[in-house]
Specification:
By secondary structure, the protein is mainly α. Helices cover 55% and strands 7% of the residues. A 3-stranded antiparallel sheet has the order 1-9-6. Strands 2-5 form a two-stranded antiparallel ribbon. Strand 7 and strand 8 form a beta hairpin. The longest helix has 27 residues. The protein binds protoporphyrin IX containing FE. The site of protoporphyrin IX containing FE has 24 residues, from helix 5, helix 11, helix 12 and helix 17.
Length: 452
Amino acid sequence: MAMGLWSTVVIGLLPPVGWLLWRWNDVWYGLVMATLRSSKGDTKLPPGKMGLPILGDTISFLWYFKFLRRPDDYINSKRHKYGDGIGMYKTHLFGKTSLAGVHGKAHLRLRSFVSRSINQPDALRQIALAMQPRMISALQSWTKCRKITFYDEMKKVSFENIGMYFASIEPGATLERLKKYLAGVVSGFRAYPLNIPGFTFYHALQCRRKTQEFFREELDKRRKNNGENDQPIQDLMDGLMNIKDEDGNHLSDTEVLDNITGILLAGFESTVVVTTWALYYLAKYPNVLQKLREENLSLKSNKSELLVTSDEILKLEYTMKVVDETIRLANIAGFVVRVATKDFEYQGYTIPKGWNVIVWLRNVHTDPKNFDHPLCFDPDRWNGSMLPENFQAFGAGPRICVGNMLARLQIAMFLHHLSTGYKWQLVNPDAKVKYLPHSKLEDGLEITIEKL
Ligand code: HEM
């Protein structure tokens, strides 16, 4: 009898408990937390669903990104369900996303230093000359292999270049160690923040710690060599060690370590992934390759030396359109995250203080309202002027990518040497695409390559 009563109670409780679990985050964050945090109390949140406790909407995100491999349908599913309306939906992703970094004046000072060192015409001129020899010799060496995995090979070239230019680390075992740590950090970029051994996020944090230790040793070595004197500036790391504010204070050691790690992370993988996509699209669109080759051969035929200058490359109109079109379609920064530092209203809805705002850049680049046949690789779409709000691959505002010109230059320089000297074929023309932590070909772009 007692058993029967218990069963009835348990069965009776299942639907409300199930409903509460299903709506937990909506009740907790949407009603309780938002109302408590909002200074006015009359919080009207954007439409959307915030999912299960702890996991939030992560399962749906992974479903579209990892299993269906249709990342755009994650946001499209919300559009269909809640309407296009204000184009903003509440959700709960990646547990609590945390952002590190400097703000305000300190951020501006750092940005302007980094920009001067790697992204402005004088720096680009030097970098162009320093980086091409490795690209040229890598291309020559690949023709001796039966096939190569382009992404892996290009990563070696690019990392040797930025390792030398940013931190004066010679190619070899030490650089390989650093590359392994940074790859570990990158793998945790979109991982669920479970800091438990065996999980990607835990591994990424361990790799980040090792990267910091790596640079800590380097920093101590440089300090020991120079005593109290300012570091003679040989590379980006020296420059970071020397930056002073208006009161003559240097960055703290932690800031130097955070920044050299951050810049290497930002520049390490992004350009290689986009270059890999460029080879893929050019192989699929021979008419585009033909035009690119003609433009670059015409530059080459007017020169006596092999190396091109950054000024020459950045003036190649069609090549730069190919680069921008690849960056648009590669969508490697699918979204960027900001934190609301105070309650604010947007089109009648409240964004409560402390909430993350995830700006879905992917959607800007794949929305047919912004681009005709958005998934088609068509550099000629850049013929007219592009509305800045339709091209956000490098972000926007005060945090816009500080390596955007460097990235475009590196990709274009490589395409110059590739298209004027080599032809290549995809080993797996139908290779699948992975979308996490960012969009990449699953086979790493296996190609055969030979001299023209
Ligand atoms: C095609 C390649 C690249 C793409 C698509 C890209 C994209 C982005 C995006 C979207 C942001 C903004 C992040 C945000 O708003 O939160 C960003 C920031 C940044 N990027 Fe890039 N990036 C690329 C290459 C590079 C390179 C080569 C470097 C330097 C070596 C670099 C350094 C940085 C840095 C330091 C920031 C932070 C800027 C700040 O917080 O003020 N990026 N990048």
